Amino acid sequence: AQSVAQPEDQVNVAEGNPLTVKCTYSVSGNPYLFWYVQYPNRGLQFLLKYITGDNLVKGSYGFEAEFNKSQTSFHLKKPSALVSDSALYFCAVLEENTGNQFYFGTGTSLTVIP
Amino acid sequence: DGGITQSPKYLFRKEGQNVTLSCEQNLNHDAMYWYRQDPGQGLRLIYYSQIVNDFQKGDIAEGYSVSREKKESFPLTVTSAQKNPTAFYLCASSISSGAKTQYFGPGTRLLVL
Predict the structure, then answer these.
(1) Shortest CB distance from B105 goes to which of A34, A43, A46?
(2) Angstrom distance (rounded) from CA A53 to CA B78
(3) Cβ-based contacts of B93 with chain A (< 8 Å)
(4) Partner of B61 for a Cys bridge, out of A6, A29, A50, B57, CB 3.0 to 4.6 A?
(5) Would you tell me which residues 3-32 of chain A have a C-beta closer than 8 angstroms to some C-beta of chain B?
(6) How many Å apart are CA B62 and CA B82, to the nearest integer?
(7) Closest residue to B96, CB basis, from A32, A100, A104
């Protein structure tokens, strides 16, 4: 069965410091991995995805994520956090060749402190 | 949010009433999805459709119904059988092959009077 875990409900970081939002996944086959961001009362916005190839994926707004197959992780990172990065972040997995159903984590609320 | 519209933004339901949430996309995507979002539970799949006139139940389909008569439209009806409908409802769409990134609408918040 496919699943995603986001072990931290809440992450706080000071403005200008690097941030990391953690995600681990479980699939039988090859994963497609995604990160989305959600601002209050808004839909999810796509940030980046991993399909294959380079383990370091760069996305929107300066975010990047590193795929680690041995640790089954796909952590979201940014070198220098902005107050405007404060939002809810979701990791999702889609197993290759299994149809269209995504599995989402429960979300991590990021607060960047000025 | 561009390319997918949801209406209304807020919807109030009375006991025993069916209500319909609208979702329209102009991205020419074949696949469309409905999710329910509750605090602390992430997104749960209600229904999805990979092609016109075809749809499948997701993890929490009970008390909901959908139709897919046009490629652009995938309305969700919350029936009176859904006893706890208060939630944020999100519609998404994607292509049907490859990595299938899902793109989301702005959401509809459903409240019970």
Answers:
(1) A43
(2) 42
(3) none
(4) B57
(5) 9, 32
(6) 7
(7) A100
Tokens matching residue A11 = 């992450």
Q: Over the stretch A56-105, which tens digit does the pLDDT of each residue have?
A: 999 999 999 999 999 999 999 999 999 999 999 999 998 877 777 889 99
Residues in A closer than 8 angstroms to B87, CB to CB, are: none
Q: Contacts of residue A106 in chain B, CB cutoff 8 Å?
A: 40-42
Query: Where do we find the tokens 């796509």?
Result: A46
Q: Label the pairing between strands B43-51 and B31-37.
A: antiparallel
Distance CA B108, CA B6 (A): 7
How far is A111 from B76, CA to CA, in rounded Å? 33
B40 pLDDT more than 80: no
Retrieve residue B4's tokens: 């997918």
Strand partners, B91: B34
Q: How far is B28 from chain A (nearest CA, A)?
A: 16
Top pLDDT among A53 and A68 is at A68
